[in-house]
Amino acid sequence: xxxxxxxxxxxxxxxxxxxxxxxxxxxxxxxxxxxxxxxxxxxxxxxxxxxxxxxxxxxxxxxxxxxxxxxxxxxxxxxxxxxxxxxxxxxxxxxxxxxxxxxxxxxxxxxxxxxxxxxxxxxxxxxxxxxxxxxxxxxxxxxxxxxxxxxxxxxxxxxxxxxxxxxxxxxxxxxxxxxxxxxxxxxxxxxxxxxxxxxxxxxxxxxxxxxxxxxxxxxxxxxxxxxxxxxxxxxxxxxxxxxxxxxxxxxxxxxxxxxxxxxxxxxxxxxxxxxxxxxxxxxxxxxxxxxxxxxx
Amino acid sequence: xxxxxxxxxxxxxxxxxxxxxxxxxxxxxxxxxxxxxxxxxxxxxxxxxxxxxxxxxxxxxxxxxxxxxxxxxxxxxxxxxxxxxxxxxxxxxxxxxxxxxxxxxxxxxxxxxxxxxxxxxxxxxxxxxxxxxxxxxxxxxxxxxxxxxxxxxxxxxxxxxxxxxxxxxxxxxxxxxxxxxxxxxxxxxxxxxxxxxxxxxxxxxxxxxxxxxxxxxxxxxxxxxxxxxxxxxxxxxxxxxxxxxxxxxxxxxxxxxxxxxxxxxxxxxxxxxxxxxxxxxxxxxxxxxxxxxxxxxxxxxxxxxxxxxxxxxxxxxxxxxxxxxxxxxx
Amino acid sequence: xxxxxxxxxxxxxxxxxxxxxxxxxxxxxxxxxxxxxxxxxxxxxxxxxxxxxxxxxxxxxxxxxxxxxxxxxxxxxxxxxxxxxxxxxxxxxxxxxxxxxxxxxxxxxxxxxxxxxxxxxxxxxxxxxxxxxxxxxxxxxxxxxxxxxxxxxxxxxxxxxxxxxxxxxxxxxxxxxxxxxxxxxxxxxxxxxxxxxxxxxxxxxxxxxxxxxxxxxxxxxxxxxxxxxxxxxxxxxxxxxxxxxxxxxxxxxxxxxxxxxxxxxxxxxxxxxxxxxxxxxxxxxxxxxxxxxxxxxxxxxxxxxxxxxxxxxxxxxxxxxxxxxxxxxxxx
Lengths: 296, 330, 332
Known about the structure:
The complex is a heterotrimer of chains A (296), B (330) and C (332). Helices cover 32% and strands 27% of the residues of chain A. Chain A has 296 residues and is of the alpha/beta class. Chain A has a single domain (4-91, 173-294), classed as 3-Layer(aba) Sandwich (Rossmann fold). The longest helix of chain A is centred in the middle third of the chain and has 18 residues, at 187-204. Chain B is mostly helical and 330 residues long. Chain B contains 13 helices and no strands. The longest helix of chain B is centred in the middle third of the chain and has 37 residues, at 97-133. The longest helix of chain C is centred in the middle third of the chain and has 18 residues, at 190-207. Chain C has helices spanning 52-59, 86-92, 114-125, 130-143, 160-172, 190-207, 218-224, 242-248, 252-258, 302-310, 327-330, and strands spanning 10-20, 25-36, 41-45, 67-76, 79-80, 97-100, 178-182, 210-215, 227-232, 235-241, 316-319, 322-324. In chain C, α4 (130-143) crosses α5. Chain C has an eight-stranded mixed β-sheet with strand order 6-7-8-3-9-10-12-11, sandwiched between helices. In chain C, strands 2-1-4-5 form a four-stranded antiparallel β-sheet, with helices on one face. The mean pLDDT of chain C is 88. The two termini of chain C are 35 Å apart.
């Protein structure tokens, strides 16, 4: 199992400024972290924070404008050759937010899972069907023979998301990037998917990047939490260190905004803070393993 | 975003190829492919399919249906109005119009079908490629599309027909196909653009699928209803255009075709002589076929866009719901 | 807590809503009874397909065919909305009962300025001069925390949170007694959601309206609403004041839902959620609709089991203000 490291990753997009001016927007800037085998790293942030862009950069759907991505010791950020890209894809996979949109509506479930097996030559041609059934069973979709014959619209949201996970598992990846995998599922089904992620992490030693805006689910599933705001990481560290002892103003703001019936207080007023432009600040180790972006 | 649960309906933006059959009565044969069942369940397309199928049948069975040799002259029989011997009457030269129309069906349908196939293949491939690849590929294809859009079909056909030694169907098919693809290419490109950033396409990329496979196996199958509509559209436009050219005398005047029959009717001043049968029957055949195709198109639209479908007939429930307020307990 | 009123502001009495299809009827809302007092916030929680949005549509009488109210009464200030004529309904809607949708862009016209949309709305209900209407629009925007100059903005020039505030301002414009909100903050960031809810609370104190707040986020309701009703497969399965529901929920579904929210503090224990998925309302399970997924339907007690699979439980009051529809809770 290999490690995926990200160093000072950045992605700039051109946006239309006033008139003919073309301004550049830093969707992601100065992002560094490591995904290690058997660990879940949560990337928490609101919409517009850049967290999905980070996932897509790691999935090589776009190329970064700054920084490097290092997999297994090799710098993969710049390669455009098909062979190296294909090799990367056999180690790093992704699951998407919308369980319906991530499956091709006109293809059966077995097609979705067989394709990665065929593209990467994971097993012999005759063994593909058997492997598809195995993968379906592993993610809890039983009976696999029945499910394999269905079309996406015949399955529930939770089932479709499990299919997406099975598809990602087909190539036997070291890393799975999960982009808000449960936010579009019914509440009672979410825990099942989170438990599946924990199980796969334990049993297969896969490194997960779990992207979400829901802090509570991040706490449930992650070993490490990274808080993103406007494209930058503002705080990072072990889960309970960050969530129970937040040091950055934005983290505190987020935590006070989340509905928390346990707190016993009705609609506690927000901890408002002046969130300065963070671009000139650096990540500083404030406590062991716990980093905050603040004036150096 | 709202959570998606077990019985959430599929989003209506997805073309209908796999959506569940709407609650129309399902007494049709279950063995038929889904698309055929859907088209048959819609009354418009059902009618259209029957007409077009009928015309194809006539074309195929022409050798058996024709009563006379369509090229045979017989001055004895000239200028006869429809009768038992000559169902559609005879021309000024005594040729049987029924046989001409029946044999003409083959030619006309072949022209339309071939041109439609060529145009649709070009439009689908180029349109989807442009949408998926973006960048210079898109720019290049858009440029080509614009160039071809500007070319006027009929003048081009007239010019080439005048120059070409052989005025065979092949050149007509080629030119029809090459001038009609551009219109549909733009439309298919637009639809492909909406699909391009859907998660399942991204997932295919992340899985490592090569571009050509994504275009052919992931994008195209989701655009089938629009591509089918493009095909039917070009089909009937080709039919009309080809017939029009033949009418002007620019087609292969030795072949059997509805347009050619109409040409001869006009040349022989059939109308002035009070002979209605030389132009009525080929005209009706043409109009009927075009009607059938248009009906299929209308049904296809409803099949792929659920919002156009009429709600099932309900009688009291709906009326009372609209005007008198809900809740009349049944 | 809730304002005390002898007569409820809104009362749903055995309301049912069916979807009438070509070959069958699907009951989306089944014999639902609820009431909301003046100035009270009632939260309605449930997952997708439980019928909560259909219920919201029924309250405002905006259901489109094939949906129709097939039974029961919807009493607003004592008058049955179901029996009203279109003209009468027009006078009730917006002036007395208004609606806030989940997505602001379903409500706001993208090619009209915000102020003009308010003017449109005012003119539909009153004779009023445009200048007066625009002034009132400005007042309303300030009320929800938006600079009044934004009256001249187009919807796309506002952020998601601001757009939703505009929609709320529109719902408040005619000072209705009841506002129905269908997932109003679900699509928004958690911080913006908190700000909007806090503002709503302040406005409620000032203007005294009641709210029917529909959402899937139960933890939100526990903080925000006075009472909560839980909906499953078209029925209300439990209803109680929020703190009672939070600490002493009795229905297995409610408990299952609550254990689907991972805790933000305290130890992290493995959770199980609820196995299976909500039923197809066209073919609901016999007896108690939740029984295939219920941890209390085990078959150990055979007479209870027989009840669970054959008879529909009825909502009964087990404590002051606390109602549950469950065979297991009721005991032998």
